[in-house]
């Protein structure tokens, strides 16, 4: 079960890699469940070397805080709170993984009859189909089933969904960061498992889907002959932490393949995967070693004691054999993420400038009240000037004309007399 989320999450993490400028854009898919190219190139949360150094410190603080809570408070109420919190997160995680599985397994004959709807809320656009609604309803039902029964199978479904989403969304910016993280958690795991009772105590009392469990006597469980079922458990941290390192190896394989063939399809997953295969194999060997030692000594084992060296050495040995140690340590995804953010900001700025230009054009075309008033004053002034010229011309004509009006008037008076 631990290998499944690592494999799926690693390939899904490739969608977070920014497409090179010289790579052809992905062809638009007819699948109504597929995201657009811009959505598929969403920027993941990248861990830097500083984050890797502080990870064991914050992890220790959280772990010890939980230990104190379970020790001095009623664990029943704590688990109620944690169950509600993880149930909400799990509902979304299960729906997302269900959608991913539907994309890969649903026949094209059914998908072509699925209508796609778009909903817009303020600045957020989302596309959905009947399948989205069906998956959401199924995840809500599974959540209620888990909350009411605490069934171990439902718990594992939530755990696998959490692991897949975490490996997809979290990424390491370089192999240096990955090695720092695995090395730090190597000592973290040893101290809290072998040095104290804290890790084991929290794992047993923490009743939430943050671990994968499996019955030690699966035959007895299936037959229903056991009064009490005992489980072996594996924390999600022992899956996610090595998983993001395995995903980094896969992205490096993609990078190397593109460097050797820049004219190919960048989004294709059909490329040589030596680092991914080596690291995945090392993870399986390390995990098997953990369970063998655990059953041999009948004691809890820190899985990262075996997984961290296995993953680190597999990448280093593969690079040494292939003569790519320099390329391995020079590889960084931070530049890709910065370019993605820069392009996103430039796109927003371009849209804003276009809107501003349109508004300015509309403003220039529409005369302002002051401009209209000035034009009206100018028009009135021109009209007054024309009237003055007309009056002046009439006055001059009258002046030059013969004066007969007074004589006529005087003649009338004379006759009247």
Give the gist of this structure.
This protein is mainly alpha-helical and 417 residues long. The protein is built from 17 helices and six strands.
Protein model, in words:
The protein has 17 helices and six strands. It is mainly alpha-helical and 417 residues long. It folds into two domains: 3-21 and 28-332, no CATH class; 342-393. β2 and β3 form a beta hairpin. The longest helix has 32 residues, at 334-365. Mean pLDDT is 77; it is low at 36-40, 337-341, 371-375, 391-395 and 401-417.
List the helices and strands and how they pair.
Elements: H1 3-13, H2 37-40, E1 45-47, H3 49-72, H4 75-105, H5 108-111, E2 117-121, E3 124-128, H6 130-149, H7 152-169, E4 170-172, H8 175-195, H9 198-205, E5 211-215, H10 218-223, E6 231-235, H11 237-260, H12 274-297, H13 304-322, H14 325-330, H15 334-365, H16 369-400, H17 405-416
Parallel strand pairs: 1-4
Antiparallel strand pairs: 2-3, 5-6
Helix pairs in contact: 1-7, 1-11, 3-8, 3-9, 4-6, 4-7, 7-11, 8-11, 8-13, 11-12, 11-13, 12-13
